[in-house]
Amino acid sequence: MTIKNWMRTGLPVLATTALVAAAAFAQDAPQTGAEATAEAAAVVATVDKGDVTWMMVSTILVLFMTVPGLALFYGGLVRAKNMLSVLMQVTVIAAVMMLIWVFYGYSLAFTEGNAFIGGFSKAFLAGVTTDSLADTFSEGVKIPEYVFMAFQMTFSAITPALIIGAFAERMKFSAIVLFCVLWVTFVYYPIAHMVWFSEGYLFALGALDFAGGTVVHINAGIAGLVGCILVGKRTGYGKELMPPHSLPFAMVGASVLWVGWFGFNAGSNLEANAGTTLALVNTLVATAGAIVGWSLIEWLAKGKPSMLGAISGMVAGLVAITPAAGLCGPIGAIVLGFVASIVCFFFVTTVKNSLGYDDSLDVFGVHGVGGIIGAIGTGIVVSPALGGPGLDGYEMGSQVWIQIQAVAITIVWCGVVSAILYKIVDIIIGLRPSVEKEREGLDITEHGERAYHS
Questions:
Q1: What is the dihedral of CA 131, 136, 139, 140, to 10 degrees?
Q2: Mean pLDDT taken over the chain
């Protein structure tokens, strides 16, 4: 071989071999301190565009649950003369809660303080920037803190809006707004901190609440029960018929809630992965099981299954699966939804009538009771034997007992503090309008407008 031919064919081969050897050596060579630090930082700060996109979509879906979902659901269930008042209450409550969340709510719920409440280190979103990150459930996977803050903001917006259904048609607008401001401050933020913050009391206890069974639904249900008792019954309750003025509106609202709930439950996984798909599937099948369960029991008890019953079952199933959404298998989710709907049916149709309290839109009967069944049931359905993914050190009896403690603490804290706050608002503003205004309807007396004109 001539020197020219060797240079033409041999040199490229030799150069390629040298590059491969160098690359292999580089892989095996020990990293410098700077290289190791850089690599570790890259792992810790991993932010995936898919996760960010999913969390933004989930945030929008939870807002969609509130307006128009909850507003239409509640609005359709009241009498026509009070529909706009309910729409107004839900809309303004959501807006006010978002502002308070930015001012101090996010800081109280998700910063270091003590086991029961956070501090003010992030008041007015101090330190929250486009560069700050929030943890997910996967080591090394982060999301922008802005999207985590906004996602949690929508939870704090819908929870007090849920409460108003318990005393719909009979409470002053100003009293409702003031109560909700006080309630999120002294009830919602402490419970959210205890359950979802890493240093919170119930989090440290080992309580499981994937998407808000205790924080949202038991909280709202108990506050609603206390409120409807303290505010008193609607004028004419038990003597006059008070049917929903528009079941089609209520059905549309409930359906919007179901769609938005995928952001509520699957979004609570905080990233887009296999665990997110599990929460999505469970939100589908638990709700389906609950609709069938409520319709069947109503058919047997009353002879006819109703549309009102079907959408009540829909919401009961959504409530029940919320704390377990990413923690159980689909079969366990179906059973949880089915059982919860039957228990809620019993409370709505039997217990409420027996005790005589006027829970206008069954906030306690569906959200409170459904949340309790779901929270305690989570300790059962999370079992790998029932299709759950399993948890380190899981033991059913122990976990159920922890869940019961979490439920009890939420009920006591919310019940006692809510009662005090209702009394404070009653002293400052007064809870109820006059009987004349209530009979005329809150649409015109509180807001100067009507939903329908003859």
A1: -20
A2: 91
CB 88 within 8 A of CB 443: no
Q: Interhelix angle for 247-266 vs 274-302, to 10°?
A: 150
Q: Where are the domains of the chain?
A: 83-111+145-443
3-state SS track over the chain: CCHHHHHHHHHHHHHHHHHHHHHHHHHHCCCCHHHHHHHHHHHHCEECHHHHHHHHHHHHHHHHHHHHHHHHHHHHHCCHHHHHHHHHHHHHHHHHHHHHHHHHHHHHHHCCCCCCCCCCCCHHHCCCCCCCEEECCCCCEEEEHHHHHHHHHHHHHHHHHHHHHHHCCCCCHHHHHHHHHHHHHHHHHHHHHHHHCCCCHHHHHCCCCCCCHHHHHHHHHHHHHHHHHHHCCCCCECCECCCCCCHHHHHHHHHHHHHHHHHHHHHHHCCCCHHHHHHHHHHHHHHHHHHHHHHHHHHHHHCCCCHHHHHHHHHHHHHHHHHHCCCCCHHHHHHHHHHHHHHHHHHHHHHHHHHCCCCCCCHHHHHHHHHHHHHHHHHHHCCHHHCCCCCCCCCHHHHHHHHHHHHHHHHHHHHHHHHHHHHHHHHHCCCCCCHHHHHHCHHHHHHCCCCCCC
Class of domain 83-111+145-443: mainly alpha
Asked whether the beta carbons of 375 and 403 are under 8 A apart, the reply is yes
Question: What confidence tier does 184 reach under pLDDT thresholds 50, 70, 90?
Answer: very high
Q: What is the pTM of this model?
A: 0.89
pLDDT in tens, 287-303: 999 999 999 999 999 99
